Prior knowledge:
Layout: H1 23-32, E1 38-41, H2 43-52, E2 58-62, E3 81-85, H3 88-91, H4 93-102, E4 108-113, H5 118-134, E5 137-142, H6 148-154, E6 162-165, H7 175-184, E7 189-191, E8 203-207, H8 209-224, E9 235-236, E10 240-245, H9 246-251, H10 258-263, E11 266-268
Parallel strand pairs: 1-2, 2-3, 3-9, 4-5, 4-6, 6-7, 7-8, 10-11
Antiparallel strand pairs: 8-10
Amino acid sequence: MGYVVGRNLILEERYANGNPERVPGLIAELLALNVDIFVTPGTPLTLAAQRATSTLPIVCVTGDPVRAGLAASLARPGGNITGMSLQSGDYSAKWLELLKEAAPKVQHVATLWNPDNQGTIIQSKRMQETALTLGLQMTALSVRPADLENSLAVLGTADIDSLVVTDDPLLEPLLPRLIGLAAERRLPAIYAFSDSVQRGGLMSYSANFFKLWQRTAGYVDRILKGTHPAELPIEQATEVSLNINLKTAKALGLVIPEPLIARADAVIE
C-alpha cells in the first residue's frame, strides 16, 4: 500500500508476553507516544484499548465485536472501533463435530479457553450444547496465567482423551508446547489456528488469520487517509478452512475417514 517502516510509517509494537496484567500499562505507554491508530488482536485487548480511549481509532480482529460491546453493529460500528470479525462463536460447534468424526472413540474432550474473553465464553457455551448432542463429556480448562500449569497437568489424566484449542490470543504463543503435549499424551486435537497443522497438530478449523490481518491493513490505510472508524463497516471472515495432518493421525493410530479428507482444504501427508 506504499508504506515503508522508517520512511512514512512508524510501527510501535508492544507485547504482554501472555500476561494480561501488563496490557493497561503498555496501552498507556503507546498513548503517551501520540500514536495515530491502535491495532489490537482479540476481544480482551480490544476492550482494554476501548477503556483507555474513546477517540483514538482502534482496528481490531475479534470474535464477535457487537456481542462484546465493541461496536453498535457490523454495518455501523458507531464509535472509534472497526476491523474484522472472526465469528468463531458461530463455527466453534464444528470443532467437536470434526474431532468426533476423525476420532469416533473419543468420549471426554478438554477445551482450553480464557474465561476473561467474551469471545471464548460464547464458544464454550456453543461447544457445551454440541457436546450434549454428540454424547461427549467436556471439561473447560482455563489458560489464565495463574491457571495454565494446573490446566496442562489435567491433560495428562486418564479420562481425558481429546483436546480442543480455542482461538484466544493467549494460546497462540503456546501452540508448539500444546502440539507437543497432544503428541506425548496421544490426544486427538483440533486447533483454532490455521497454521497448527503445519506445526504437527492433527487438525485445524479456522479462519485464515494471515489473510485477516492483510485485510486489516486496508482499514489502517483508510483511517490514515482520513476516514473515521465509525464509517467503516466491520467485515466478517468468510473463509473457514479445514486442515488435516495425516502423518500425525498415523502416529496417533487414527484412520481419518475418506469423506473427511475429501472435505479438507489442505492435507499434509
